[in-house]
């Protein structure tokens, strides 16, 4: 199983950038993406102040770490960009100028873990000086302004090239939303395809901006760090392990891994480390996530079959390895994820606390949940971005609960992957204009994932 690397994700999209809607009729094309669970809007136009401020009166969350403030500033930067904004207040009725975004968060904690409430409600008036927004947790608030290009508030705001102002059309707005699945991830594979540190930092920024939307807010970065091909991660207690990197120049220090964890946490995203080696559960402590991925797929047992050890043949050694790895991780307080190969080979002998990660094509997921295991669904024929012969519509519309009809078994499916690149094909230029605003490389709408434009011409036509 060759899992997709970072670079493939970003060649899936291309369109010209134009973040303007100056014609009132254009607003009818506006799509909030992904579509919230509940949305209502009116017919009025108001203006966003050039000096809009974050307001937190009545808030239990004090934002000592600055996560909320940073998310607010990123959103305002995204909306305003480098546009000249007319600040002559006398031209506009003051009652139509939005000067504040009022955020009320019910919880005082900024702890990020699996199952945290990611719901929110956002109200934008047709008159008045501020929005009203409420979220049970900080990470619910991050859903309507965060690092995500798909965040709700920034999609409602549009710069108008004629008036030189940021407009909010179709006010008043009332939007309420919550994620469908508690685990919503994207996988990057730097074991097989090493990415230099500056590149991976930029790609993580892109990941926040791109792959968040289709399943409502990505909250897990599945980092496949080590595999047969390379071991680039520094493990201080076993300093020779990263000698298995492709070269001395293709390594990740322990400190850098911690930096990545902090970077994505500030954007509401956990890091799931995939580390196949049993003895290195301690290395997972920097990731601060309740799950650790222990791999276990595509194991070649030929060596063990030829040279049995302690009376175990290849299949027995494979099972022992996986089960021992689970025991070590569980003893340190982690919950374990394994690829479905382990379930298929010896599922009856596995702990029911295991989460089975389904990647094969077909319908194995119903059997996994029927056996009482939790399941992550990532069918390669539907959701692997390097399967370029799969129709975009199939990518987007694939239902993870197919053939799972019993409610108690449906609850065991904890994830559907984020697939914003796929959705952009369906939504067309309106979404792509926003994506490319952040410098995301992409392919033309009518070309395969690695295709280029036929020649000069409008990006909107191509």
Provide a descriptive summary of the structure in words.
By secondary structure, the chain is an alpha/beta fold. Helices cover 26% and strands 18% of the residues. The chain has 15 helices and 16 strands. It has helices at residues 6-10, 67-80, 138-141, 152-156, 197-210, 254-265, 302-306, 314-331, 340-346, 364-370, 380-383, 392-397, 407-410, 420-427, 429-436, and strands at 38-40, 44-55, 97-105, 120-124, 130-135, 157-160, 165-171, 173-177, 185-189, 220-224, 270-274, 291-293, 335-339, 355-358, 374-377, 413-415. The strands form three sheets. It has an eight-stranded mixed beta sheet. It is elongated and about 85 Å long. The relative contact order is 0.15. The model is unreliable at 1-27, 211-216 and 418-427 (pLDDT under 50).
């Amino acid at each position: 199983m060759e899992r997709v690397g970072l670079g493939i994700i970003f060649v899936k999209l291309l369109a010209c950038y134009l973040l303007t809607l100056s014609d009132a009729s254009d607003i009818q094309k506006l799509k909030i993406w992904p579509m919230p669970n509940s949305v209502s809007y009116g017919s009025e136009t108001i203006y966003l102040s050039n000096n809009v401020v974050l307001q937190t009166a009545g808030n239990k969350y004090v934002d000592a770490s600055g996560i909320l403030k940073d998310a607010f500033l990123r959103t305002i930067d995204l909306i305003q960009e480098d546009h000249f904004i007319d600040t002559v207040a006398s031209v506009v009725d003051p009652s139509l100028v939005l000067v504040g975004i009022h955020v009320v968060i019910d919880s005082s904690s900024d702890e990020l873990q699996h199952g945290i409430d990611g719901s929110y409600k956002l109200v934008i008036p047709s008159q008045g000086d501020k929005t009203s927004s409420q979220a049970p947790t900080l990470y619910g608030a991050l859903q309507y302004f965060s690092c995500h290009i798909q965040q709700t508030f920034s999609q409602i705001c549009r710069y108008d090239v004629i008036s030189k102002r940021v407009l909010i059309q179709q006010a008043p707005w009332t939007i309420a939303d919550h994620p469908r699945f508690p685990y919503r991830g994207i996988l990057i594979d730097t074991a097989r395809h090493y990415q230099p540190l500056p590149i991976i930092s930029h790609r993580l920024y892109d990941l926040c901006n791109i792959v968040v939307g289709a399943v409502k807010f990505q909250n897990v970065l599945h980092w496949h760090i080590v595999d047969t091909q390379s071991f680039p991660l520094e493990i201080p207690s076993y300093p020779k392990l990263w000698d298995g990197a492709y070269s001395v120049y293709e390594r990740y220090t322990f400190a850098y891994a911690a930096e990545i964890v902090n970077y994505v946490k500030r954007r509401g995203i956990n890091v799931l480390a995939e580390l196949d080696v049993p003895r290195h559960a301690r290395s997972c402590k920097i990731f601060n996530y309740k799950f650790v991925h222990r791999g276990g797929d595509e194991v070649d047992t030929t060596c063990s079959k030829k040279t049995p050890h302690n009376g175990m043949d290849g299949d027995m050694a494979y099972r022992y390895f996986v089960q021992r790895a689970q025991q070590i991780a569980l003893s340190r307080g982690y919950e374990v994820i394994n690829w479905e190969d382990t379930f298929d080979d010896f599922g009856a002998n596995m702990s029911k606390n295991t989460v089975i990660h389904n990647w094969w094509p077909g319908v194995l997921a119903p059997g996994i949940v029927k056996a009482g295991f939790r399941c992550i669904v990532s069918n390669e024929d539907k959701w692997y971005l390097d399967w370029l012969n799969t129709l975009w519509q199939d990518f987007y519309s694939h239902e993870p609960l197919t053939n799972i009809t019993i409610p108690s078994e449906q609850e065991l499916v904890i994830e559907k992957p984020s697939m914003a690149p796929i959705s952009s094909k369906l939504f067309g230029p309106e979404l792509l204009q926003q994506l490319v605003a952040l410098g995301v490389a992409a392919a033309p709408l009518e070309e395969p994932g690695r295709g280029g434009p036929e020649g000069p011409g409008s990006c909107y036509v191509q």
